[in-house]
């Protein structure tokens, strides 16, 4: 069974905050990179990146898929609209492992 390891960090100050998120799957079958990108990969890498105003990369490692997201947060953007809570933002780093 695959279990994700999710790590995120807030970088910068209030005028130039950036969210860095890394989703890494592990514990599943060996991963083989696709020969072509399908709808889901394009949706993640293009549409999500555009929606967040950042970058999204998907890497196919033999041990599992890794998705890395870098998104800029707007100055004055409320924490609840920035995908994180105020309490978590004060910690600056959050890690979740299933």
Automatic annotation (TrEMBL):
**Keyword line:** ATP-binding, Kinase, Nucleotide-binding, Phosphoprotein, Transferase
GO terms for MF: ATP binding; protein histidine kinase activity
Signal peptide bounds: none
**Enzyme Commission no:** 2.7.13.3
| Reaction catalysed by this enzyme | ATP + protein L-histidine = ADP + protein N-phospho-L-histidine
Q: What class of enzyme is it?
A: transferase
The cross-references to PANTHER family, in alphabetical order and at most eight, read: HISTIDINE KINASE, TWO-COMPONENT SYSTEM SENSOR PROTEIN
Q: What is the recorded name of this protein?
A: histidine kinase
